[in-house]
Amino acid sequence: VRKYIEYASNIAVNLPSSIQNEIAYYVDSLKRRQYKYLVEITPKTVLTMERLCKASARIDLRNKVEEKDLERAKPIIESSLNVA
Predict the structure, then answer these.
(1) What three-state secondary structure class fits 64?
(2) Looking at residue 40, what DSSP letter applies?
(3) Closest Cα partner for 58 from 28, 15, 20, 16?
(4) Which residues are CB-contacts of 38 (< 8 A; sequence separation ≥ 6)?
(5) Could you tell me the CA-to-CA distances from 53 to 2, 35, 58, 69, 79 in Å, in that order?
(6) How high is the pLDDT of residue 39?
(7) From CA 10, how far away is CA 27, in angstroms rounded?
(8) What is the per-residue pLDDT for 82?
């Protein structure tokens, strides 16, 4: 497990501009619905989404973020916003 973690943490993950745009659209949609959440949606939310997507790609030992990484990160963000 240690070797896996060491190898995965050394992978340089690329975030394509198409995924960056999708992240921006998603965070914008969250911003429009922010009255429903306990916390404010800020520009840091975009950075959080990017980091979650990159972490998802690292888990699968890929060097490029894909659509499935974004779909994996969305429920994590939404569940963190809905904590009461």
Answers:
(1) strand
(2) -
(3) 15
(4) 81, 83, 84
(5) 22, 25, 9, 5, 16
(6) 85
(7) 28
(8) 81
Q: Which residues contact 40 (CB under 8 A, 6 or more apart)?
A: 34
pLDDT at 84 (0 to 100):
56
Q: pTM of the predicted model, to two decimals? A: 0.89
Distances (CA, A) of 26 to 15, 30, 71: 16, 6, 11
Find, among 74, 48, 72, the residue nearest to 60 by Cα: 72
CB of 65 closer than 8 Å to CB of 14: yes
Give 14's DSSP letter.
B
- At 20, which amino acid appears? Q
Q: What is the pLDDT of residues 16-58, one digit of tens each?
A: 999 999 999 999 999 999 888 888 899 999 999 999 999 999 9
